[in-house]
UniProtKB/TrEMBL annotation:
InterPro entries: BAT_GAF/HTH-assoc (IPR031803), HTH_bacterioopsin (IPR007050), WH-like_DNA-bd_sf (IPR036388). This is Bacterio-opsin activator HTH domain-containing protein. Residues 7-143 form the Bacterioopsin transcriptional activator GAF and HTH associated domain. Signal peptide: none annotated. It holds the Pfam family BAT. It comes from the Archaea. Residues 156-206 form the HTH bat-type domain.
Length: 220
């Protein structure tokens, strides 16, 4: 049975340590809905909080970043298009080679938080042991088996399922809307932008796996 784990890793052992340290009020979240080739990793990052222009400058000076451009921009958030340097791409591919499927990634201050899926629980230990040998410590915050039947049936991550269920209960989908994205984020203990992105990803997964199966079958 597969297992999902929440891990933390110091930014100094991962990426963007200096940029995050100089902007402690800033939060980063990888946009996992973006389509990209297997050779690309985390091509789009959402940034919220603090001085976005100043953080963009810090972004450009980060050792792991080759190029950066603004893909989208609002008053309180920006999506950056990133091309990472080869060592960071090799780190991500090494994680994948050691059986970790990266479901979500975010960072603030001096720490990255990662949600990883493994096909078997024993793979978690070998994953941690490998990276401890390389000087990178992935700390486990929690592990669980995705046992909810709806989660398994429709391919939702635990966070996507929780976000969609919370959004329905809060009236987020009602007309008129009973809760804003900011209020939904407060219920989920994340930013309003992150809550909106999570609901979008979960909704896309739910529709794809619940409503479009026949269409995909006809196209095969």
């Amino acid at each position: 049975m597969s297992v999902i784990g929440d891990f933390t890793v110091p930014a100094a052992s991962f990426a963007l340590a200096d940029a995050l340290a100089s902007h402690p009020e800033t939060r980063i979240e990888a946009d996992r809905q973006a389509t990209h080739s297997p050779r690309e990793v985390f091509p789009f990052l959402w940034v919220t909080g603090g001085d976005l222009d100043a953080f963009e400058s810090a972004f450009r000076d980060a050792p792991a970043v080759e190029t950066v451009s603004v893909a989208e921009r609002t008053d309180d958030a920006a999506m950056f298009r990133i091309v990472w340097d080869e060592p960071f791409q090799e780190l991500i591919h090494d994680m994948i080679d050691h059986h970790a499927s990266i479901l979500e990634a975010s960072a603030s201050e001096d720490t990255w938080s990662l949600r990883l899926r493994f096909a078997e629980e024993r793979m978690v230990s070998s994953f941690r042991e490998h990276f401890e040998e390389t000087g990178r410590r992935f700390e486990v915050r929690s592990l669980w088996h995705p046992s909810d039947p709806h989660q398994r049936e429709y391919g939702l991550t635990a966070e996507q399922y929780d976000a969609l269920a919370t959004a329905v209960r809060a009236g987020y989908f009602d007309v008129p809307r009973g809760a804003s994205a900011t209020e939904l984020g407060e219920r989920l203990d994340i930013s309003g932008n992150a809550a909106s992105q999570r609901v979008r990803r979960g909704s896309a997964t739910l529709v794809r796996n619940a409503l479009l199966l026949d269409e995909e079958a006809e196209g095969t």
